[in-house]
């Protein structure tokens, strides 16, 4: 077994220290090296922008961003670490165990159990389809936040605040009433994850259903020509979004319903 680079994510400093000691105790049978620590999910995302890790040992209950939502972000990374949940709460442990795609450690941890978890994590990278399905069952409503990186800092974007997502080449813009955020996300994947709350109005745009204030006819100014087209009016911004001819019948039916 090659040496594993470990990221520890726990909001309690004594718990992180205890985990470091256990990892040192099992280094002979499960070679490992702690490369970073974080006190919550947001800090963990920042550490993973700076440092590569093979395994993330993730507490579940944390402020700002909990462990389950953190892993929903991790599995979308190009080279995600494998994930082992750490929890003091049986209900999370039992569900993770039943899914069998994500391992868990029940606090207080035992050294032998930690070594077993590391060996399993080394064989089961978190980017697998099985892990994505497990996360969908653990958190069926999807992520509560998206994240973007600005000037080396991770910013959280609450999904509930997003008025629309618009694709532009390899980036997606998330628009809130306050500002725009550039996300390294796929519009197709965002629609798949949040399709119940968002409505496709164009091949490059999905809109929050709750943000729609109305619709109106306009003339010209679209990539489909200069003829009359429909636009959506949104709450909180003056901007109007064009609806493609292909999407208009579906958009109209949903709005009228």
UniProtKB/TrEMBL annotation:
A Pfam family hit: LytTR
A GO CC annotation given for this chain: protein-DNA complex
GO BP annotation list: regulation of DNA-templated transcription
Gene3D superfamilies reported for this sequence: 3.40.50.2300, LytTr DNA-binding domain
GO molecular function: phosphorelay response regulator activity; transcription cis-regulatory region binding
This protein's UniProt keywords: DNA-binding
Statement: the UniProt record of this protein carries the keyword DNA-binding: yes
HTH LytTR-type domain mapped to chain residues: 152-256
Response regulatory domain residues: 4-118
Keyword ATP-binding listed: no
InterPro entries per UniProt: CheY-like_superfamily, LytTR_DNA-bd_dom, Sig_transdc_resp-reg_receiver, WalR-like
Name of the protein: LytTR family DNA-binding domain-containing protein
Organism name: Candidatus Nitricoxidivorans perseverans
Lineage, opening ranks: Bacteria, Pseudomonadati, Pseudomonadota, Betaproteobacteria, Nitrosomonadales
